[in-house]
Amino acid sequence: MPGKPVTDQQVRVYMQDRHRHSQRAAAARAGFSERTGRRIEVDPRLPSQRPPERGRTVPDPFEAVWETLLLPILENDPAVQAVTLLRHLQMTDPDAFPDDRIRRTLERRVRDWRALHGEARDVIFRQTPEPGRMALSDFTDAEELGVTVAGDPFAHRLYHFVLAYSGWEHVGVVLGGDSFTALAENLQNALWALGGVPREHRTDSLSAAYRNLDREAAEDVTRRYDEFCAHYGMTASRNNLGEAHENGAVESHNRHLKTALDQALILRGTRDFADVADWRRFVDQLVARRNRRRDAAVRMEVTALRPLPARRTTDFTEIVTRVTRTGGFLVNSVFCSAPSRLIGQRLWVHVYHDRIEAWLGGDPCRRPSPPAPAR
């Protein structure tokens, strides 16, 4: 049979039958062709006793240039592509290498050299997601969607929560940056919409949440995040800095989500919305449709989730400030106006990612204007 090597046992059967049968019959009984039988009779050694027959069937077109010309270039920079080397050969000796017919040969040669002498590569162990084990969070810039609100460009981000096993997702529109308050508020919204808590919550390095903060403030963000996860009984984890593939379960969902939003906006016919609430409803409706396609896997995963705690936890930053004689107060270096009757009063201000709330003791005050951006 073509491509199937003859075994020692087949040769023994052939040689025994050859005493009683013709060459054709003995070969047929042994399971190979008559032509193979003729070769065996010329060289009666068993296949295991013969040296392997390997060698080139055509001359090596790079024999004269591989060691002297190509190999030094590869050793200097292993990232060089085979087609670049071929173009170099065609420029230096156009008569010897007139066309691209030997390109595949050179690509195989370069591939084999890299396998034997190239740089070590990262080893990635694929993981099989388990129901209820891991959820991932990430922020992604939505500027490429070209959304406008009341005709004005709307600069914002999308918070994206994904369950690794079922792919169930929750998306929040974030007006500020990827701050702790944006993470805490939207993550809680996701968990309560899901109705359960996974065992582990993974993020990226979270450096963007406190990139401009001093060391004490950055440590405070880390402490508050750890306390947040402890409240829900989740193990907090994050991928190594610069290793995006470790957060790949949500990174790939980011691309698919923005593609789906872009296509839905095309069908809508306009990317302008009356207000932010209108855009949020649009996003929520699209995400709900995407989650319905995962219904079977989600039902299986929900049974493996841990129960929610009795209440939500703090998802804002609290600042204590006093209303000055000018009729306002400062929040994160932003001046906010307040009713004149509150002059001299101490306020407890809750800073969210998209709004602030002022409290006088246990009573809410009228929302000040303008709202301070979260940091």
UniProtKB/TrEMBL annotation:
GO terms for biological process: DNA integration. It comes from the Bacteria. InterPro entries: Integrase_cat-core, RNaseH-like_sf, RNaseH_sf. GO terms for molecular function: nucleic acid binding. SUPFAM superfamilies: Ribonuclease H-like. PANTHER family: INTEGRASE PROTEIN, TRANSPOSASE RV3428C-RELATED. This is Integrase core domain protein. It comes from Roseisalinus antarcticus.
